[in-house]
Amino acid sequence: MGLFPRLRYPADYPSPLAMKRFSIIAASMLAPALLGAQQAPATEAPPTIVPYPPTTLPLKHAAQPTTSAITAQDLMTRLYIFADDSMQGREAGTIGNFKGTDYIAAEAKKIGLIPAGDNGGYFQTIPLKVRSIDNGSTFTVGDANLAYGSDWVATGSKSVDASNVQIIYGGILGDTTQMIKAGEGAGKIVVFTMPPGTSPRAMRSAARAVEGAVAVGIIGLDQFMPFFTRPQTFVDDPSNEPAETPPPTLLISHAAAGKLIQGSPAPGATLGGAPGKLDLKLSVEPVPYPARNVVGIIRGSDPKLAGEYVAMGAHNDHIGFNNRPVDHDSLRFFNHIVRPGGAEDGAKQATPEQQAEVNKVLAEYRAAHPNSSRPDSISNGADDDGSGSVSVLEIAQKMVSAKPKRSIIFVWHVGEEKGLLGSTYFTDHPTVPRDSIVAQLNMDMVGRGDAYDITGKSKDGAILRGSPNYLQLVGSRRLSTELGNMAESVNKDDKHGLVFDYSMDANGHPDNIYCRSDHYEYARYNIPIIFFTTGLHSDYHQVTDEPQYIDYDHMARVDNFIEDLAMHVANMDHRPVVDGPHMDPHGSCKQ
């Protein structure tokens, strides 16, 4: 599951390709994960900690032949292969993801799926590229040349070559009482100061605050410069260009700011004493390895319905690896106690009481497992979304012999973690007619969800926990009441015994889960969807999300239910009725 939804402007989701995975949230995660970590007072009442059960599964597992039934053993075999260290965290555009999609395609062929990608094969390659600012870019204020990389850095999606440009002070960004008015920054370089506590991601987005500016400069903390200079991945798809491209954002060091700002200027005041010149050069290159959706079909058995499709999907990518290994067990216990949401809680630090508990639990574990310490740097993505990817394979293997009346199209999307890129591309360029897809069932993180996992929070902040029967549903009635009702009836009538949690589907929920996985890209085209997940947990987007911590029996129960539901949809005498609000395919998503 992605941290952020796909945005309808040039994405500021940075690519770690050139940095060998400077992991999202990793900078805040690594240092405090060891004994003696930095401590901070609690900002909210800590949740009751349900201890991890003993880990009984091995670090490695010998593969076994899979069967036509959906079983825990099959899922275990598949996931230990797909989320192995050899896949290097499966980041889109890397050799690890390339190997992962090779595995999926080979299994799809073995199962007997009909290839439905490009040119008669299983792959649909998306034009994923990496965009970065050239180090030769220059910024001159009067006679003063500011050095790129030390005095300033930039981020953006278009080149700029502008001379004799007026530089003005924009005020304090976000404070409308101390900012320039709309239109005053057009054709100028506008420099803002930032209020304390502004995140680097908010800084990268500052250019959207000024319409028509040549560039927007912000005076920020020098330690944010590496974040600003991280390359950005994007899909070079001319058919889906954004309506407008915001100006670039310049991060100006405090030392260089002294050459621009003297005293306390009023918003709109001219800075630098002379016009400026900005020559910002972009470098664009393809990713090192093809980024690929994997697509296969089971042809429907009813000639009247075979031209319609039930889509089933998961994402095949994760967040890669980093070059700063951490102690696996220290991080796992620290996160479970201090950051039960994993990356969702990345800013939290331990209270003295929490750190004492971490030290105690880790010491007990070390005593019971001597010489077990291991450095870890690979975010294997066993649950996110190895669990969904192998579940789709397992369901496909069963459905091949079930002979559904409608066709089933299975899509393993790439680039979900970079902003739903693969599902966006597939729904913009489907390999079957888009209006022939009657529903989409999405699986993202379906391998956990027991009582020791905090699976999320309700809209009002109440903690959610899993159970042996737990399953979250998101979006099930947003476009089709009939589809949502069918999920309930199949679960009840066919005695699956799952307990559905709709808490994360609430309108206005701050976590915005509806917008954060691949189902949304189908929903924007008014295709009814259901998003199935067992929820978040403390290993989310961490190096500790490994196959040995998955609940395979629970996952098999979830998969058997989803397969049963898919068969019901495939065998209906009509399409699921769309009775929800009409979606704008090019609008923004807000739950």
Euclidean distance between termini CA atoms: 16 Å
User: Total helix count?
Assistant: 13
Beta strand %? 15-25%
Helix content: 10-25%
| CATH architecture level-2 label of the largest domain | 3-Layer(aba) Sandwich
The tally of domains stands at: 2
Please give the largest β-sheet. Answer: 9 strands, mixed
CATH class of the largest domain: Alpha Beta
Class from secondary-structure proportions: alpha/beta
Q: What's the alpha carbon Rg, rounded to whole Å? A: 25 Å
CATH superfamily heading of the largest domain: Zn peptidases
Global geometry = globular
Number of strands: 25
Could you please say which CATH topology of the largest domain applies here? Aminopeptidase
Low-confidence stretches: 7-42
Mean pLDDT value: 91
Which helices and strands appear, and what pairs or packs with what?
Layout: H1 26-30, H2 72-82, H3 95-111, E1 114-115, E2 123-126, E3 128-133, E4 138-141, E5 144-146, E6 152-155, E7 160-165, E8 167-172, E9 189-193, H4 200-204, E10 215-219, H5 225-228, E11 232-235, E12 249-252, H6 254-257, E13 276-280, E14 282-286, E15 291-298, E16 309-315, E17 321-327, H7 328-338, H8 352-368, E18 375-378, H9 382-400, E19 407-413, H10 421-428, E20 437-443, E21 454-457, E22 463-465, E23 470-474, H11 481-493, E24 499-501, H12 519-523, E25 529-533, H13 552-571
Parallel strand pairs: 8-9, 9-10, 10-12, 16-19, 16-20, 20-25, 23-24
Antiparallel strand pairs: 1-15, 2-15, 3-11, 3-14, 4-5, 4-13, 6-12, 7-13, 15-19, 17-18, 21-22, 23-25
Helix pairs in contact: 2-9, 2-13, 3-9, 7-8, 9-13, 11-13
